[in-house]
Amino acid sequence: MALVEHKRYHVTTFGCQMNVHDSERMKGMLESLGYAQADERADADLILFNTCSIREAADNRFIAHLGEAKRLKSEDPERVIGVGGCWAQSVKDEVFERFPFVDVAFGPGQIARLAEFLASDSLSAQGYFEFEDFSGHLPMKREREFQAWLQISQGCNCRCSYCIVPSTRGRERSRDPAELVAEVEALVADGVREVTLLGQNVNSYGRDLGASRTTFAELLALIDGVDGVERLRYTSPHPKDMREDVVRAHAELAAVCEHIHLPLQSGSGSVLKAMRRTYNRERYLDRVALIREHVPDCALTTDIIVGFPGETEEDFAQTLEVVDDVGYDGAFTFLFSPRRGTEAAELGDQVPHAVKRERMARLVELVQRRARERAQRFVGRTMEVLVEGGTRRDPGQLRGRTRHNKAVNFEGTASVGELVEVEIESATSQTLTGHERLLSRVP
Ligand code: SF4
Known about the structure:
This protein is an alpha/beta fold.
């Protein structure tokens, strides 16, 4: 592949961790071709967007950015504009018609084709949208030195009625377990201490692997077995696949952290049915009980959608009941917004915006109160923290995360990437505060 001299790229990333990972791969691939990163979009020869399509609002935000790229292209027609990710995949049939200044567009499974396009002398715009490959095969430029994302699967076989992902990332395909272990060994050799496994439905890993079928729990054990992996995390799991062997892995495998993200979405059986989440409240709470039985101190976080079509005050009250009952350590809360191309967007009985906002306010208040109560269990304890840097507010203060994925701000002298013992003095719903216990460094 022809190398390019002195050409610079700029990537803007929207959306989820999988997109953050894909952008790290895009940058790694471009730098292997000889491109260098430009800090400002206006200084780049190649302007790229890695897009999200989970909510209509995300589209609108991105299109505003695309407007600036159009202006930059008109100033210098040699510039190349490229759009990748889920939004590109969702508008694949109309992207060049709607945005004629875009030179190349590619879906989440086609990042490698960008290199092909850049090496070709193609004068016409090119689109690549097959659900072919894993970006995980490409070189990676990690944003965080001691932490790494590892894509273990792509796509999703579920059919949640509000979600566009199955149509933008295709059906579930798992990467070969031996390839993943080899990649983790290379990451550790490169200084990584914490690995986060990525997949749309991470705990259904392996079902499509035929003869080399490996379950998610077995994959956790394989990666836990790699010397140098201090911490192992994963996102995003589905409650329907949160089996006992996965929960036991948190109790039995040294590197697997005491944090599970278990999306609830709603506490109402009828809303869960309309969402096609394939579990009900009882099954969900049964998973929570299993986790609390095997890993009593495990941190639990979740995702909740407020105002799904047809959601009554009674339905919402059931969501509040589950939140109060479980006592999450944190939650991502979203206002339902109809996503064009999804079943839920066509549903009647859309909840008025003012009602959604009022319910969201009550939910956030409850989530924060319960998270604050839960966080008090860390006060007075000494927690292992992976140092990530200084705090924005006070550069003299350090910040990092516990194995429970709780953010910690603390006084200390450690360096980024070190594992240190921190004595916790106080806790809010979001953050713990403390001081480094001297002579506590983990080599
Ligand atoms: S599990 Fe549901 S919400 Fe998650 S990616 Fe698949 S379809 Fe979307």
